[in-house]
Structures are given as structure tokens and as C-alpha cells.
Amino acid sequence: MSAAPPSVLTEGLTKIFGRFTAVDHIDLSIATGEVMGFIGPNGAGKSTTIRMLCGLLRPSAGRAVVAGFDVARKPEAVRAHIGYMSQKFSLYGDLTVRENLRFFGGLYSVRQSEMAERMRFAITMAGLEGRENALVNTLAGGWKQRLALGCAILHRPPVLFLDEPTSGVEPEARRRFWDLIHDLAAGGVTILVSTHYMDEAEYCNRVALIDRGRLAAIGTPSELRGHALGGALFELACSPLGAALAALHRAPGVIEANVFGDRLHVLLADASAAASLHTLLAAANVRAEAPRPIAPSLEDAFVRLVTRTRRPEAAS
Amino acid sequence: MSLRRVLALGFKEFLQVWRDPRSLAVALLMPLMQMVLLGYGVSLDIRRVPLCVQDQENSTESRALVEDFVASGWFAITRTLPDNAAVRTAMDREQCIGALVIPVDFSRVLAATGQAPVQSIFDATDTNTTNIAIGYAEGVISLATADFAARWEAAHGTRPTRVGVVDFEPRVWFNEGLDSKNFIIPGVVAVILALVGAQLTSLTISREWERGTMEQLISTPVQPIELMLGKLVPYFAIGLFDAAFCLAAAIFWFRVPFLGSIVTLALTTSLFTFVVLGIGYLISVRIRSQIGASQVALVLTMLPTTLLSGYTFPIDQMPAAIRALTFIVYPRYYVSILRAVFLKGSGVAELAFPMLALTLYAVFIIWVAARAFRKSLD
Ligand SMILES: Nc1ncnc2c1ncn2[C@@H]1O[C@H](COP(=O)(O)OP(=O)(O)O)[C@@H](O)[C@H]1O
Ligand SMILES: [Mg+2]
Fold this sequence. Notes:
The structure holds two protein chains of two kinds. Chain A is α/β, with parallel strands linked by helices. Chain A is built from ten helices and 16 strands.
């Protein structure tokens, strides 16, 4: 596994629009068959990065190799080996399901002998049986997205780039879409999928967090939680909150304490320090229940990681 | 280059045009409307040239001559006027573009000598119509003359030595049918094809940008040259259909004599259609909004085509500098090809120069189009 070259590799990949750096030295390495999530707020540079990987934008600096081909030097070879779903829905609304599939099959030079089978596969995958002759404009969002995926995989590309494929789609359809992604990955397809839904990060093998064009963190979802926190998180029901906060902020071993609804979230350098919290708070005239360890949400982790990576920038 | 991709693109484009009423209207109704507007503009309106009559004699003979003008169908008598001043006023007010002046001694002189002068005055501001009208007037007069000669012969037993109803200023008209429409209608076909062709393809690329389908399209391995050829395939069929329609109208409706061969016509028309579609495609590649592309196509094709193609304004009467400029106005080649094929029956050999010029244009367009389109969002 480790001997196989990565399906997608970027080194110092950078894109500058005029004086604005949209993507800033991104290093990524995605193994064959891996589902890599690309997460970050709007304007973070996700689409720009994906477009460079598809050969649609020329990198300003750095390099990227996709399916063994350099995107700047061999963009056509790259295009023949990838499937791409752009962020904005971009099939032909005035064509039917079948006509769209046949069109993209033609552009990707899918063999005539294979075409019928590939189309059937795509239609079944998208759950569009019985709607083959419907104009795409008349389909609901979830179907459109699955059809777009179907069009992107007709030629069995080894690498797929999906740019926010689930945005604006109902939760049920989103879940279904992720099932398809995993089926494809199980078949050996390497997938880079961007999203701004934090919960979808959980569906990925690894997640790259991108913020303001920079890679803020990369790892499996559970690795990111651990990195993000740098400690153990506890929930604490107590009152009054103000006095409790003041006491906690002075206490050794407490990294962070924040109000979270009517409770506090306390981050401790060491989980064993939790037991001593009670005495500490009692000394400050705070009534408190026993601290409860909690698993942070990925969203929590991302917020933390982003603030941490932004800090040095603010100082400079 | 992959034929498969070209055909996939062509079929897709065909379906889109087929399902879009606006594109279909441009493709099929625009040539029809323009053929009616431009074609009738040069022929049927001229069929009833408004004419004033100043009949100073008002005799049986003079009234018969006026009647000949009306019966020809080419003239409509709008006014009967007492004197020359009234004629001038009527022309200034555009109540007529010509006047027929029959002198007071017309029938007497005619009976005595077999020849009588009739004056015609034409407004020369619209030289085109005037020339046509003068040609018509000559036609009417020569018929009247023949008729008079026959009656003279019946009465006197011999033909008059000098026959002439009128002392008409002789004008040499280039085609014997007295009919400038034979000259102009083929030009009209060329102009319509140039305008419609460029309109058709000027939207194809900008439509992909505006609908957001371009990003997906250029993420595939499609080559720029395949994109161009694929996009042109359906419009080529439409363009040939339009051309066939306009040419058929010229032959069967406007009755322009057709002396050439259909094969020559088909060959040269295909070449020209390819060039006009290619020009529209290049505009489309350069301009990303549909409205913008359509307007640029209109301006870029309308002015040179109507002014410099020689379809109404003869190229050999232009100043030298402008005449030089017409060599890059591609419709001029097709205008001259059509005239030659229609009126002279020219074949491919005689048309070598304009065909070569159009071929160079076609090659140039393919060369530019293959480079102009970048598969990039930069
Ligand atoms: N063609 C462009 N020209 C100038 N700026 C651009 C262009 N494309 C994207 N940007 C800017 O680059 C930044 C990153 O955009 P994008 O990659 O689309 O972000 P994301 O997909 O993460 O929302 C944004 O600030 C955007 O405005
Ligand atoms: Mg984006």
C-alpha cells in the first residue's frame, strides 16, 4: 500500500488571482481508493484547488500530479483519467437523462460496445430508472446530482473530483450520495470531495481542512479531534457561571473554559485533573455537578484548528 | 481528432436548437422574413413605381400610352398634373418618383412622322429604383412602339422607316430583361446567409458559458477543433437548408433566371456557409455573453455585407481604397459567384478566384478557431 504512488499529489500548489492568493502552498497526498474530504468555509479556496487539479486553472506555483500526470504539462491526459462534478450544476437541462449520458459518454470516448452497459449502470446508480427520457430540468436536486455523478464516471475514471456535490440537496439524498461515493471508493476510485457540511467530514477516510487558501489541518476525523483539542474536554453544570469561569481561568491545568449554553466546556491538559475541579470550585463558592467527559463534534475541532492556525498570522 | 466526439457534440447541439424556439426562429424564420423584406424591397415594390402623368394633349393616343404604363403592372399612376412645376412639387413630396410628360402635339406628330417625343423625368436620389424604373419605362415604350409599328403597317402597307413613340434618352441596362432584380436577388441571398449564419453560431459558445455548462465540457478530453466542428455540424445543416430555401425562392418566386449547374451552386454555397458559420463561431469564442455575441455578430456582418459586398453598391464604382477593403469582405465573393452562376451559368473553372478566396477564409478560420478557444477558466 505504502509503495503505491499516490493518486493525487500536490506540492506547494498555489493560485494567485491578481494580487489575491486564493490557494497558498497546499501539500496534499491522496492514496488510491481513499475518500478525502475537503472542508472549509466559503471562499477558502476549495474550488480553486480542485480546478487546478482538473487542469482548468493553471497553478501559479507548485505542482500537482493526478493519476500519474502533471496537471500543468499534461492536462489532456489528466482530463482523460478524471471525473469532475463542478460546484454549479452543469449538465444540459434541455436534454434528457439518456441524452446527457450519451453526450458525455461520447466526449469521454466510451466504447460503443460498453456504452449501453455503462448507461444502465449510471441510471441504476442514480435511481433514475423510468425517468431516462425526462428532461433534466424537470428533475429534483438529488436526482440531478446523482446523474451528474453518473456522467462523470461513465469512462471509469480512477480519480474523481466532486466539488460540493451535496450542496442544496435534502439530507436523505445527501446520505444516498455518500453511499455512492463509498461504493466507488470500494471499487478503487480515488475521490476528493469538497463540502461545507461539517457532518459530512465523518464520512471521509481523511479530511483536509482548508482556510483562507491554506491547509489548516489534515488527518482522519478522529485524529483531527485529538489534534484540535490538545487535551480532554469536559462539560460542567454549575452556578454562578461567571464566578466559575473566573476560578477556572486562574486554575493550573485548565487550558480553556467557555460558556456553552447554560453550562461550561472545560478543556483540561490532563483528564485526571477533572476530579480536583470540584474542590477548586467549592473554594470559589460555586456549586457544581461532577464534570462529564464529552467527545467534541468535528465542527468544534475545526473552529479550534482554524483559530489556532490564524493566530500567528494575526500576531505578525 | 475523434469523429465520435465531433458527432456527440453535433447531436447535442442539434437537440438544443431543436428544443429552443428562439434558436429555431433565428434558424428558420429569419431567412424567410429577410427574403421577403429584402427581396420584395428590390422587386415587388418596384413593381408599382409611383408615377405622375402630365398629359398635355389628352387624346386617344396619349391616353392609350398612359394605359400601357398602368397595364404593365410596373407603374401606378398616382397623379395627373397640369405643368412641370406641379411635377416637381409632387416629387419633392415623394408622391411619385417619376413623371411621364406627353407633349400637346403628340398624336399629330406621331401620325405624320411615325415618331413622337415623350419626356420622362425621374427622381435620381434613389438611383437604384430610378434605374429600374427607367428600364421598365423603356420596356413599356418599346412594346408601345412595336404595337404602333404594327398598326402603321396595317394602315400604310409598309413599315415606317423610323419608328419610335418616344424620343427616349437611351440607356444601356446590363441585363436585357430590363430587370435589375435578376442582379440584386442573388446578392440578397448572399447577404441573408451571411447575416443568419453568423447569428446562428455566435451564440453557441456563450450559451455554454452563461448556462454554466462550459466548465463541465472543458473538463473532458474534448479538443478545441472537435468542439468547433461538432458545434458547426447542426448549423451547417440549418445553413444549407436556409440557403436552399432562399435560392429556391430566388429561382421560383422571384423568377431570377438560373443558367448554372446545381452542383456548382451546392459546392460554392457549402463553402460560403462554412465560412459564415465559422465567423460566427469565432465571435462566440471571443465574447462570453449571448447578447454581446449576437450584437457583435450583427454589426460585424451587417455593415460590411450590405455596404461592401457589392450586392447593391457596385464594387467597381467605389473609391480605390474602399475597393481594396472589399477583398476581405467575404460575402463579396459569394455575391459574385451567385451572379455568375445564375446569370452567366459559370462553372467551377470560371469561379476559381472567388472560390479560392473563400477556401483561404475557411482554412484561416479553422486555424484561428483551433487556437482561439482555450480549455481554461483563467
Ligand atoms: N477567477 C477568479 N478571479 C479572482 N478571484 C477568484 C477567482 N476564482 C475564485 N476567486 C476567489 O478565490 C477565493 C477562493 O474561491 P473558491 O476556490 O471558489 O472558494 P471555495 O470553493 O472554497 O468556496 C475566493 O475569495 C474567490 O473570490
Ligand atoms: Mg467552491
